[in-house]
Each structure stands twice: as C-alpha cells, then as structure tokens.
Amino acid sequence: MLMSTKTILLGMAFFALSCAAGGSGPKGSASSDPSVAPTDSGPPQTIDISGIGGPGSSGTPGIAINPTCTSDCTDFPEAPVVDPASGPLPANVAALFGAPDSTASGAICVSEPQLSDGDRPGALVPVNWLRPRFRFEAPAALDVFEIRLTSPHQKFPLVVYTTNQQWTIPKELWENGAVNLAGAEVQVSVRGISKAAPSKPVGTLGSFGIAPVAAGGSLVYWATTSAEVSPTTSKLVGFRVGDEGVVDALTIPQVQKSGILNEGGNALRGKHDAPRGVPPGHVQCIGCHVSTPDGESVAFTDHWPWDNVLSSIKPETTGQEPAYLTPGASALLGQPWLGMMTFSAAHWKTGDRIALSVWSPRNGGVGFTGQAPYPSRSDGLAWFDLEAPAAIPWQENQVMSTNQAIQAQMGKGFGFLALTGETRSLAAPDFSNDGSRVVYTSAEVTQDGRIGAGQPNNETDIHWVPFNARQGGQVVALPGASEPGIAEYYPSFSSDDAFIAFNRAPNTAGLTYYRPDGEVWIIGKDGGVATRLLANDPPACTHEASPGIINSWAKWSPAVQQAGGKSYYFLIFSSARKYPGAFIVPKHPLGYSPPDTRASQLYMATVVRDDASGKLTTYPAVYLWNQAPDTSNLTPAWDEFQIPPVVVIR
C-alpha cells in the first residue's frame, strides 16, 4: 500500500510526487528582448500615478486614472521610429509601405498583444502593466515590417520600422504615454513587405485597450525545469507589477525549517533517501504555495509525505519561520498528508492567526500513526492555530508520545470544521477574505490531501461551507459549478469575495490537476451562471485552441479597481500554449510525471463588471514577457508579497 500511494502522482501543482524542479535563471536576470533601446537603463519603474502609487501598490478602489491629455497629445513622436535592433532597412522604407490603409489582408499572425478580431475584443491591460511587446509571425518572403499604433488621444501615430518580428515599445514612450492612453483603444496595424520584391503590403489590423486603472501587488510563482527533486530544482520566483525582470523569492537552501518527519513519524524524513545535498529532516521541495495575508511569508506543501511549511520571503528574514509561528504549531503543520493551506485577512491578527488545510485521515489516530488510506473518500478540513502554545515532543522511534501530544491538541491547537452533508472528500480549499466561508473541491476520490484519480471517473464539484468560528456547518453545492459529469475544481475567491474563479473540464475522467482540457471560468460567490473567460483562447491565427492547452490555477489580484461605474478584476493563470522558448519538461525516470508535460507560462486576464447592470466582459490573455521562458512557470499567487526588488541590468 505504501508504494502504491507514493507512486501515484496526483494533485501537487506539477509532477506531484517529485514536486517538480525549478530554476528561472540568475537572480535579477535581464530581459533578452532585442528591441530594448540602448539608452533604456536603470532599475525598472512602473508608472507613478498620483493617488494610486508606484511599484507594488495595490491601488485604492474608487480612484480612477485621469489622463492629463485626451486629444492631440504628443506622447508619440511625429517621425517614424527605427528599431535599433533592426537589420538594414531600405532608405525609402516609408514610401514602400505607402498609405496606412494600403494593406492586403494576409498571413501575419499577431500573438502579442492579442488583438481584437471581429466582435471579440482585444486584450485589456492595466495602465501600469509591462510595456506592450509586439510579437508576430509572417511568411518567409516578408522581411521588412511596419508596426503602426494610433489612438484618439494621440496627435501622431507611433510608426515603427523593423526587420524583426518582435518589438517592445521603448520605455520612455510607454511611461510618458500610458497614462494619457488610459481608457482608450489602441489601434494596431502590422504590415510586411519583401525588400527584394516590394508590392502592396500584407498585414493585419486590430486593437487592444489600456484600462483606466492600475493593478498592484506582487506575483510569486513556481519555476521548474524537471521532475527530479534536488536543492536546485524547485524554487519560487517573483516580481512586482510592472517589473521587467524576476527575482528569486525563495529557494530550498534558504528554507530553515528542519525536523520534518517521515510518514510514520519514527524518523526524520530522508534519513535513508534524501535527495543529494538535502540533510535529513529538511525541506526537499517548494511548489504549491499561497501568501499569508500580510505578504511576508509563503505557505507551501513540501515533498512526500506532504507536510506544510511557512517560510518568510522578506529580504531580511528570507527562509525563516515567522515569529508568530510557535514550535508546537509548526509541529502540528508537520503532520503527513496535509493539503495546501489557505488564509483569510479576517483571521490574521495577534490571537487569531488561523490556517486551514486539507487533512487526510490516518489509520489509527490523528498524528504520525502510519499510512493514510488511498483512495480516500473522507478527507476533511482542519484549522490550525499558528500561535498555539503547544508542546509536541519527538524522539526517534518514540512516536507514541508525539501522537499523544498531538491528540491532546485537538480543539486547542487544531481541529476540524464540520462538513454536514458532504459525502465526498475535500481538496483545494480557499478561505474567503471576509472569513465567513470556505470554498473547496468536493472530490469523489482524493489522495493524501489532494485530488485523486477515479477508476474510471472522479466526480469533482465546487462546494462551500461556513467557517462559523472554526465550527463549520452545512455544506452547499455551488449552483453553476457543481454539474454532474463535469470536472470543476481549484476554486479561488476574488479580493472582494464577489466572484470565484475555478477550473472546468468537460468530463470527470483522468488526472485533474494538469488536464490539457482544463479551462478557467468564474462565477458569483453564491453561484448562478458561470462565465468562461475569453483568456482561455489563444489567437485563432496561431492554430491552437482551448480546451487543449492546460489553462489552470487562476488567482486574483489583491484589489479590485473601480472607475467610470465599472469594476476591474485581474487574474493570473498558467497555460501551456505556444510561446518563444517552449519546451517539454523531462519526465521523471520512475514515471511520476503526468501524461502531458508541456511547459507552462503565466498569463494575465482582465474581467470588467458594469456595476449598474452587473454585466461581465472578459478579455483575451496577456503574456508576461518578463518571466523566464526556459522554466515551466506554475501555481502563481498574486498578493502584496514583500519580495526583494527586481534589478534589470541592460
């Protein structure tokens, strides 16, 4: 039984048993974008907007971005721009392209930013987002390109000539012009000609939008390149909104947690089989993670047997356990077969610091008493008092006293929420920000605190239960996200608790956590009609389609922004759609990898609610070009993380 449980890969964020591998390039690594102008130097800056703030600011709901100029603005130069990274251009390049409307519809495919197409809108980005990068594919015969941006706010179009199929707006143009573009549509044309045989340009037309609000906070994600476990193959990487590079937020060698026990509790984990370079009892893997409400720490699930760890990511205390976490609470979180933790800002103050986690039943007791049953159909929801003054003794091969001490903490240092009416197991919970309820995946089959694989099916639905001062209560199936025969999983509350994002797949067969046919949907907190995000779909011209590209793990930005009678919501998620540098993650030699091992990258999605009518409009995804393309980037969290600053060396 032990081997069968250890060898079934389910539910960790990616390549679960081995917890995947990490590595996103050197700390402070620079963008390799060749279109960055040589004069663009210094640390990255986001737009400093009065009343909302600069880098890392979450903004203030209700404050809009007010352009200083809305017509005949001169942020775009009158003269065309020549890409400094371009190859030789004809001296009469502008004349060769002719009038702006001289365009023959052709096979230029713009993938960044995703442009409007018929009645489908283009991408909508916050005003302080990464400056737009234009990436496209063109037939081999085309070797000179014109990129033209026009806006009703700008006096002149921004016209660029280049031989490259990728170009990023220069930093000074974006910083000067972004605020004045807030709330506007930017019309884009990309045209190409052949230097050897110029004729009527071939091109494509479309638009994207600049939202009249800023996004804030920081993002921390799991970067991986392999399914192997080692001190260098799993780490967390982060950046603030607007940063043009990334920084290591937490690596395995930095984590100071020790004393981690094996599944039986009678020895330190890894005493006989720790990965090379990892001492027995130390963390082996960093993967699925969330932020504590103060943004100072991450909570993550370690390697087998899936204990939970809290670790600071503040620069001055990186890797340390938080000061409020008592040794007893740390030991209680070190029980095996726990799922991911979740927190609420409403229960995050001295005397009331609560973590919730999935808890898989043990054979014979509550602590280190042997093997958890698999498949499980009774995983529950446990609360943990992170300030509990508990004493949990441990000596090798003396687990009875440890287990007795753990049992003595029932109802004190930890306990269980009643799940009245729940007939299945619980997995992947999310605690509402107001502390009133917990939404989770109700799964027919779970394994060690995470979603399992049914034979042949595993029904998964979104349910919620009241927190009720740690007591729980009657479980409610979320209408519109609990359909029989449909896989609905990984729920996440928006920062105002108005919406829940979740994954949806068309059937209940197969592995759940890295399904190619998974898509991101949203629904009101009390259910109703779910909305499929337009961000699931790549541009049609790329010949990719969803479902089929592993859209998953959506998380919301830390604040809702409001302007002009509308509320702006931003989400981050992972997707394995095509991107420059895409690769196949090497599979684990013992077969622990999922069937599909395409690398994923991070994408941002915007949802806008008309506050008067309640109508939702969703927009295509925006690729984050600051992330490392040579890592598979997964399980992002978006919060007020207090990570080191990103310094981009140019």
Explain what you see:
- Among the domains are: 2-29 and 215-371 and 382-419 and 554-639, no CATH class; 81-210, Immunoglobulin-like (Sandwich).
- The protein contains five helices and 40 strands.
- A hairpin with a 6-residue loop joins strand 15 and strand 16 (308-312).
- It is mainly beta and 650 residues long.
- Helix content is 6%, strand content 31%.
- It is elongated, with a radius of gyration of 25 Å.
- The strands form ten sheets. Strands 1, 2, 4, 6, 7, 9 and 10 form a seven-stranded mixed beta sheet that branches.
Key attributes of the depicted protein:
Immunoglobulin-like, 6-stranded antiparallel sheet
pLDDT average, as an integer? 87
Got a strand count?
40
**What portion of the residues fall into strands of 2 or more residues?**
25-35%
Number of helices: 5
What structural class do the secondary elements suggest?
A: mainly beta
Radius of gyration computed on alpha carbons = 25 Å
Helix content: under 10%
Overall geometry comes to: elongated
Oligomer: single chain
